[in-house]
Amino acid sequence: MTELTPVQRVPGTSRLIEVRISTPDADTAQALATDIVDRHLAACVQILGPITSIYSWKGETHQALEWLMLAKTTAEMFDDISELVTSQHPYDVPEVIAVTVRHVLDEYGAWVRDVVHGPDLDE
User: Fold this and answer.
1) Residue ranges in 9-89 assigned as alpha helix (H)
2) What is stated as this protein's family in its record (predicted)?
């Protein structure tokens, strides 16, 4: 479970993250992305691919084509996105990595927060 400071629990100040998720095919990526956005866990999910991944699995080096999802969201949504992905993903251990967004256009950040947390009632 992600520990959040009191400031991070306030929707207008929620820390923005990009969650990176790799999938074995475009159909899996599209299904996951649609579910994530429909549930308001992320404001936007971009799908890139195919990409080539070279990785170690069970002591052997493998190479595969994958599709990479980039979900724009807040830190509070990471656990929910992780649970959704692990429940629907075909991999035993799916890649689910969050990267903190250090700089963002104010209007874009407000839009992401509004989508995942609802409109800021103070505005």
Assistant:
1) 26-38, 78-88
2) Belongs to the CutA family.
Tell me, what CATH number does 30's domain have?
Answer: 3.30.70.120
Tell me which H or E stretch contains 45.
Answer: strand 44-57
Does residue 72 lie in a domain region? Answer: yes
Does the N-terminal peptide bond of residue 119 adopt cis geometry, omega within 30 degrees of 0? no
pTM listed for this prediction: 0.86
In the numeric block, which tokens belong to residue 68?
Answer: 């990479």
- Determine contact, residues 116/72, Cβ cutoff 8 Å: no
CB atoms under 10 Å from CB of 86, counted, come to 13
Nearest Cα residue to 78 out of 15, 31, 27 = 15
Average pLDDT for 29-50: 98
